[in-house]
Amino acid sequence: MIPVTKPYLPNPDLYKKYIDDIWERNWLTNNGPLVNELELKLKEYLDLDHLLFVSNGTIALQLAIKALGLTGEIITTPFSYVATTSSIVWEGCTPVFVDILSEKLTIDPKKIEAAITSDTTAILATHVYGIPCEVEAIQKIANKHGLKVIYDGAHAFGIRVKGKSIFEYGDISTCSFHATKIFHSIEGGAVITKNPELLRKMALLRNFGHDGFDKYTGVGINAKNSEFHAAMGLCVLPEFNIILQKRKSQYEQYKTLLIHLKVDYPSLGTVESYNFSYFPIIFQSSEVLLSSMKALEENGIGSRRYFYPGLNQLDYTSGACPISDDICLRVLCLPLYHKLGEEEQRMIARILLRVQNNPNT
Ligand SMILES: Cc1ncc(COP(=O)(O)O)c(C=O)c1O
């Protein structure tokens, strides 16, 4: 079986060493030394002033919305994982969908202004597949209308734009360190901001609002992460550049093998350093997608309709986004993970080309 993704596992002896130290200290969670060390190393690696390690990328989005005090309508993308929208609804706000750019698949800034009403408080956009949003155009609109900007950077670890981390854009950026992400801590995530006041707010919100043992500032939640999760992050981070190189060569290998496959690829825009976190292909029709997916499955190969359905199509959402609706019907992510072999990639390419050349078999 070739799954669509597999978590990267570091050297087990290194992880065991961290676990032995946790046993020795008997300090398992609550802002322990490994959480602090991971935060420091992540800031150093990503070249950031502030970052908080939290329990996952979903709660990171919820903390961001809460810390900014958002209410009313939040303009967002229909083309993302469900957590982008559900976090908005969970925080009592209304998602208002703006369609995506047909080439980059990120929110179309030219369509944002028409969706702004007197109830709009923010824009929440996703750097989908690690493709940077049109950050400058979005900021211009936000400044003009007094809106906050949150970026869901769940896929964007390590991405740089115009000489700085993609996480520096917007009021708050979030990331996911889920086991299937290119950098992971089993479960985990982060909130990133340049604003020390927002940072302090999110640090309080992360820990029940505790401001010392006996004082609470506002209503908080438990968004902390544990020493065990931080230990995994500390094992994976030093290997990140090796993971990245491997992904890059697998990505290029797919591009070569699939040169005759009639599919489109999302454009990466102006990204300086891409992270190759997914390999999405856009078929010419949903019929070809479904027969390709079936043929892969019959050969023990996983693939994922990432993203389907569009987030404007959920039971609890609405909004017309024809470009996203169309892409959602035609996009498929192929297997991509550290241990995926060249021969396996060749087999995947052969199956896809066979379906293209013999659509009725
Ligand atoms: C775009 C996007 N946002 C948010 C999340 C949520 O992250 P987590 O699984 O860490 O809660 C994911 C997870 O896959 C995601 O892909």
Q: Mind telling me which CATH architecture of the largest domain this is?
A: 3-Layer(aba) Sandwich
Put simply, the count of helices is 11
**Regions with pLDDT < 50 over 5+ consecutive residues?**
none
- How far do the termini sit from each other? 22 Å
Query: Numbering strands along the chain, what is their spatial order in the largest sheet?
Result: 1-9-8-5-4-2-3
Strand content: 5-15%
* Biggest sheet overview: 7 strands, mixed
Instruction: Summarize the helix and strand pattern as letters.
Output: HHEHEHEEHEEEEEHHHEHHEH
Would you count the extended β strands for me?
A: 11
Evaluate the radius of gyration.
21 Å
Number of domains: 2
List key phrases describing it.
about 350 residues, alpha/beta, Aspartate Aminotransferase, domain 2, Aspartate Aminotransferase, domain 1, 7-stranded mixed β-sheet, two-stranded antiparallel sheet, 11 strands, about 10% strand, binds pyridoxal-5'-phosphate
Give a short summary of the structure.
The protein is of the alpha/beta class.
What does this structure look like?
It is a single chain. The chain is an alpha/beta fold and 361 residues long. The chain folds into two domains: 12-98 and 106-238, 3-Layer(aba) Sandwich (Aspartate Aminotransferase, domain 2), CATH 3.40.640; 239-357, Aspartate Aminotransferase, domain 1 (Alpha-Beta Complex). Helices cover 38% and strands 12% of the residues. The protein has helices at 12-25, 33-46, 57-67, 82-90, 135-145, 196-206, 227-236, 240-257, 286-298, 322-330, 342-357, and strands at residues 52-54, 73-76, 94-97, 120-126, 148-152, 160-161, 164-165, 172-176, 189-192, 280-282, 331-333. A seven-stranded mixed β-sheet has the order 1-9-8-5-4-2-3, with helices on both faces. Helix 3 packs across helix 4 (82-90) and helix 9 packs across helix 11. The longest helix has 18 residues, at 240-257. It is globular, with a radius of gyration of 21 Å. Pyridoxal-5'-phosphate binds next to helix 3 and helix 4.
